[in-house]
Amino acid sequence: MFDRKKSRLNRLFNTSGRCLDVAIDHGVFNEYSFLDGLEDMEQTVKMLVKAGPDVIQMNYGQADLLQSLPGKNKPALLMRVDVGNPYNPMTHRTMYNVLTNPEEPILMALRMDAAAVVCNLLLLPDEPDLHRMTVQNAARLRNECEKYSMPLMIEPLVMKRGQGYSVDGNKNLIVPLVRQARELGADIIKADPTDHPEDYHEVVQAARCPVLVRGGGKADLKEVFQRSHAFLQQGASGLVYGRNVYQHPSSDKLVKALMAMIHEQASVEAALQVYNE
Q1: Is the predicted pLDDT of residue 11 greater than 60, yes or no?
Q2: Global pTM?
């Protein structure tokens, strides 16, 4: 029997079973600082398609920029189907994360021929209602995804209170949240990096499905390669980068180097050589 979910997963994971996902879905979170480098979305999408990652992560209102481009050799679409306010630099009196189309949560993804959908699973200090909200979102999406054989990526995020919220790399918080994402039915998990990359095999073990490591904020090029290589060595199935790619002055060279690291097991030195060619 033809497996529609498997065919969609194949569009994400290349022949190596690994994946580079470039996320440009930041605008939906209503945070000005996220928009640097994304002012001209049409140009950004064209640049990324030329660079050639496996996947571009987008929202419905921008997805036409990718899907209307001619030709078959373009990245797969991974569509975000939720929106919230935890990324703002202030703590809101009411924190929320809701599905963008609560009546038919994946309808727009189906219409845009997305290969998968993604939603958050959030754990923030003193915000149990927000966690409950994202658990309900994930459970609702799992049901809808099963109806239409749509792969579901869940993004479990452990965040700490500070100037707004930032990533908490504590493995004792990340591992159980990743396990919860799997228990809720994730086909793919986009997980935070742990403070110590050598611990990441515990995240992979908890997931029991492909894990893509979330890249986070901007960093020095060699540091990006070193951390990426370390997490891949621990069993991650790929990487998710946003600002480190689309704000980079040579995004095409960076994508090529990351693709070599992901699909050809290139070392840090080999990736730097690919980048400098």
Answers
A1: yes
A2: 0.95
